[in-house]
Amino acid sequence: MAEKAPFSLSGKTAIITGGGSGINFSFAKLLLEHNCNVVIGDLTLRPEAQALVDAHSSATSSPRAIFVRTDVTKWPELDALFTAAESCFQTFDIVCPGAGVFEPHWSNFWIPPGAPASRDRVSGSADDGTGHYASLDINLVHPIRCTQLALARWLNGEPKVSPANPKRVVHVSSVAGQVPGFSQPLYTATKHALSGFIRSLGLLESEMGIRVNGVAPGIIRTPLWTDHPEKLIMLDQERDEWVEPEEVAAAMLECVQSVDIGGGIVLEVGKGFTREVKSFNDPGPSGRGMQVSHREVLQQEALTWLREDGWGISPT
């Protein structure tokens, strides 16, 4: 087998969902610093992301950043995101379907579809009894569909993808993909599934030149935590440690560039370290930034909901 060549970012283009904030914003910023164009798909941009796009939005900018408003639960909008990237840059080389949610009340296993709280939502998909869990659509279905869309374009485009013309897909899993999580079973299920999906596509690199990898972050200082007081109560601010989004973005960049990482590998990202999560007999997450001290608070909250009369019975 031929030796792998380094993957140069300069002049390439990346599609990133969820780039309006958090980990994916940090990844977009890092790619731009390496002269890689960025196409951000998200519902909205936080001020720091808007400033980043504005700084690179000119048609003469190099690298360039564009924003395409995208509801990742709607497949036509995902397709339009890819079309926009091709229209602006002719092709794309990296896909990061990073948009995700962390068991919000509007899409929460312990608040069944049809319950009033499940309608208090910000996503285009409603947990309203019509057949969709928004958390699954966002965290699992959307990254799978994005991967399909990327493969279809790369395999049928010119020049066609190959080991000599490699492409990259980087997913955002979680340490929740290795352990149980009573208070957030939908989120935990999606991350277990996503890690399995990543590993299952490992053969694509040697056969097609498409490397599919993922990162499994610990407790990251992003709006998924900091904008949600109901989640922050699990943390002991004096004992627990945050992992910064920039640390995760650096691991994502390693997935794209490193010749030492093969297809199908998932990198765990903690405070000050990364490691490969083994497919078999892995010891599980440990180290700094990997856990919260008061997980039982949300566990008890879920049990309280379950003990309410009529839990899960659809209103007539």
TrEMBL record:
The UniProt record lists the keyword Isomerase: no
GO molecular function, one term: oxidoreductase activity
Pfam families from the UniProt entry: adh_short
Top-level taxonomic group: Eukaryota
UniProt key word Nucleotide-binding: no
GO cellular component: cytoplasm
Signal peptide coordinates: none
Alphabetical UniProt keywords: NADP, Oxidoreductase
Stated family: Belongs to the short-chain dehydrogenases/reductases (SDR) family.
Name of the protein in its database record: Uncharacterized protein
Annotated organism of origin: Gomphillus americanus
